[in-house]
Amino acid sequence: MDKVWWYTTEHYFQAQKFVGTPYLEQIRSVRTPNDAAKLGRKRNFPLRSDWEQVKDEIMFRAVLCKFQIHLDIREILLGTGDELIVENAPNDYYWGCGKDGSGRNQLGLTLMRVREILKGS
């Protein structure tokens, strides 16, 4: 993505918080998604000023790219038909459903959006 190879979508997503800083390349180069997430949650550098406005679209682009490239998981996603997809993350009320199901489930919504695009291609 963006003419650069990324290990995972987590690497890409976390690094995008720091576009224009040396921290982006540091996150891109770590070996595991967990390491990328840990670095992305640190605040050694300030987040880009528009992060809250762009983070959903950045995640969408990364997830779409992932499912366009990896045909095996693309088939799994398409195999869900029109089912509701929920990110079962009890501690995450933004990307997941949260402990009580009241979370935004943004990752589930993103996956369903990607699924609709892939159905049409």
Any idea what the CATH superfamily of the largest domain is called?
A: YbiA-like
Distance between the termini: 20 Å
Radius of gyration: 15 Å
Quote the beta fraction.
Answer: under 5%
The number of domains: 2
Shape: globular
- Biggest sheet, in brief? none
Account of the protein in words:
- With 121 residues, the protein is mostly helical.
- It folds into two domains: 1-42, no CATH class; 50-121, Tetracycline Repressor, domain 2 (Orthogonal Bundle), CATH 1.10.357.40.
- Helices cover 54% and strands 0% of the residues.
- It has helices at 9-15, 22-29, 33-41, 51-69, 71-78, 106-119.
- Helix 4 (51-69) packs across helix 5 and helix 4 (51-69) packs across helix 6.
SSE blueprint:
Layout: H1 9-15, H2 22-29, H3 33-41, H4 51-69, H5 71-78, H6 106-119
Helix pairs in contact: 1-2, 1-3, 4-5, 4-6
Name the features.
121 residues; mainly alpha; Tetracycline Repressor, domain 2; 6 helices; 54% helix; 0% strand; globular
Summarize it:
This protein is mainly α and 121 residues long. The chain has six helices and no strands.
